[in-house]
Amino acid sequence: xxxxxxxxxxxxxxxxxxxxxxxxxxxxxxxxxxxxxxxxxxxxxxxxxxxxxxxxxxxxxxxxxxxxxxxxxxxxxxxxxxxxxxxxxxxxxxxxxxxxxxxxxxxxxxxxxxxxxxxxxxxxxxxxxxxxxxxxxxxxxxxxxxxxxxxxxxxxxxxxxxxxxxxxxxxxxxxxxxxxxxxxxxxxxxxxxxxxxxxxxxxxxxxxxxxxxxxxxxxxxxxxxxxxxxxxxxxxxxxxxxxxxxxxxxxxxxxxxxxxxxxxxxxxxxxxxxxxxxxxxxxxxxxxxxxxxxxxxxxxxxxxxxxxxxxxxxxx
Length: 316
Ligand SMILES: Nc1nc2c(ncn2[C@@H]2O[C@H](COP(=O)(O)OP(=O)(O)OP(=O)(O)O)[C@@H](O)[C@H]2O)c(=O)[nH]1
Known about the structure:
- This protein has 316 residues and is an alpha+beta fold.
- Helices cover 42% and strands 25% of the residues.
- It folds into 2 domains: 5-129, Beta-Lactamase; 140-315, Alpha-Beta Plaits, CATH 3.30.70.
- The protein is built from 10 helices and 11 strands.
- The mean pLDDT is 93.
C-alpha cells in the first residue's frame, strides 16, 4: 500500500498547498486536490480540466490583461525551465471580492526518465502578511499618543514635499512645543504629564483633517503638523487656533511663569518646494522659529515664509 500511486496521491491531496506539475512546455501534467479546489472556488475558466491547460499561457494571459504578478510568475517559471535559476519564489496579492489574500508561489525542478518537470506550489500566507502589516502599522505610531511617530512623520513629509513640488503648491510645517513641561511633570508627576501629551495629541488630530495634513509626536513634548497646499496665512490662523485650544484645555501648570496652565509655542514655516530646497531646510527653519518663539516669551507663534532668495518674517 505505502508504495502505491494511490497512497502518494492521497498524501498530495491532503495538503493545503495547491500543487501542479508542469513539463518543459508549460503543460500541466498533474494537479492535487487543493489546486482544483482553488480553481473552482475562484471560478477559474480552466477549473474543469487542468490537464488541458498550459500554465505559461495562463500567466501570459494574465500579464496581457495587465496583471504584473502574472508577468512576474511567467518570467520566473521560464527562468527555472531554461535553468537560468535553480528555484523561483514569488509573493503576490490575490484579493477576492470579500477578503484580502496573499500567496507565495514556489517553482522547483525535478527529472524523471530524462524528462524535466517543474513543481509549482501556491501557499496561502495571508495570516503572516496581515500580522506583518499590523506590526508595520504599529511601528509608525507613537505608543503613548497613538498619532504618527517621528519615523513615519519624516517619511510622510518627504511624500508630501514631492507632491507639493509636482503641483508647485506651498507646504507649511508647524513644530509645536509645550511650555515649561518639565515644571508640569515635576509638580504633578509623570502620569499627569503623559495625560497632557495625550490630550494635546487629540487636539492636534482636529487640526490635521484635510488630505495632505498630518500630525505627529516629534519628540518628548514636541509635536509637528504638516499642512500641505497651505499658505503661511492659513497656517498662521490654524496655529493661533491650536494654541488657543491648548490654553482652553486649562491643564494646570501652576509654577509656569507665563500663566498657571499649560501653553505651547510654535515655529511655523511655509516653503514652496523647488529643486534647491529640501525637507531638512523646512524642519531646520521651523526649529529656529520655535527657538525664537521660546526666547521671546513662549505661548506664541513665530512664523516665516521662505521664498527662494528672500524671506518674510512675522511674530504673533
Ligand atoms: N510625562 C512625560 N514627560 C516627558 C515625556 N517625554 C519627555 N518628557 C519630559 O518633557 C520635559 C521637557 O523639558 P524641557 O526640554 O526642559 O522643556 P520645558 O520644560 O517644556 O521647557 P521649554 O520647552 O523651554 O518651555 C522633560 O522633563 C522630559 O522628561 C513623556 O513621554 N512623558
